[in-house]
Amino acid sequence: MDSCVIPLRHGGLSLIQTTDFFYPLVEDPYMMGRIACANVLSDLYAMGITECDNMLMLLSVSQNMSEEEREKVTPLMIKGFRDAAEEGGTAVTGGQTVINPWIIIGGVATVVCQPNEFIMPDSAVVGDVLVLTKPLGTQVAVNAHQWLDNPERWNKIKMVVSREEVELAYQEAMFNMATLNRTAAGLMHTFNAHAATDITGFGILGHSQNLARQQRNEVSFVIHNLPIIAKMAAISKASGRFGLLQGTSAETSGGLLICLPREQAARFCSEIKSSKYGEGHQAWIVGIVEKGNRTARIIDKPRVIEVLPRGTTATTLVPDNFNASSEPTL
């Protein structure tokens, strides 16, 4: 599961805890701190938990950086992590810092819960609908942005995407990765979610398969739609890397994949976009739960939903040859 659930000796309470860390993947140290914190908290949110009692920060400072670089970069990463924790209603109370060849940032999130405060990810039923709350393609966007300065790699994708489109996708990916899944976690209770996971390093297919294996009922997940940051599907295909359309492309701090009752899914998608939760929250119906042997698959020709970066219109982006749609269908 995304988090460990440890029954406590006192009053039917459970200790729920998760940890994660990784290397920097964006250029902005402050945003990297925010993304790292959002990624740690996301494992709690995947269980419908909206409150976190405590966070620890894990930080590795690179010995290969100059003292001046360390003094500028490290406080920004720490501030980003702390600010995201504060946005999540919690605080960083400690942690560990080491010197290492690489920069690493991550943390530990801990909460004590009553049984009604979390949703075990094991109760999907036939007829449920799968909803995803962030678009896919973060790894593709980050890598494409790095390739702007690598002629050999850029030459493989420049026929399907412009430099401006790569910049827009990179900014969109960075914004999405730094966005907390807390709103979606709260709405899981409102709309009677049966199970959920967050989409990170194993891609949407890997995490769907893992979630399917946890189910108590004999069900399988079938994914029909793939919401993807605009142009990233074309880059994945042109580069011959990532496996984005096959669902194997890694994501960082991705959205929640939630099993919802069919009659609730559309209302969930509509509610999460409400302005009362702030800007940037999205959701798409991406698949169904059917009778099966606890597996997950993506259909042979999934519908690609091209998700436009904020502040752009359809005419801003050059059309590609993919079967693209702005509306999810089943």
Automatic annotation (TrEMBL):
UniProt keyword terms in alphabetical order: ATP-binding, Kinase, Nucleotide-binding, Selenium, Transferase
Domain PurM-like C-terminal: 126-298
MF term (GO), any: selenide, water dikinase activity
Top-rank taxon, per record: Eukaryota
GO cellular component: cytoplasm
All residue ranges annotated as the PurM-like N-terminal domain in the record: 2-106
Cross-referenced Pfam families: AIRS, AIRS_C
Gene Ontology terms: biological process: selenium compound metabolic process; selenocysteine biosynthetic process
Keyword Calcium recorded: no
Record field: catalytic activity: hydrogenselenide + ATP + H2O = selenophosphate + AMP + phosphate + 2 H(+)
UniProt EC number: 2.7.9.3
Matching InterPro entries: PurM-like_C_dom (IPR010918), PurM-like_C_sf (IPR036676), PurM-like_N (IPR016188), PurM-like_N_sf (IPR036921), SPS/SelD (IPR004536)
Classification via PANTHER family: SELENIDE, WATER DIKINASE (PTHR10256), SELENIDE, WATER DIKINASE 2 (PTHR10256:SF1)
Function field: Synthesizes selenophosphate from selenide and ATP.
Name this polypeptide is given: selenide, water dikinase
Species name: Loxodonta africana (African elephant)
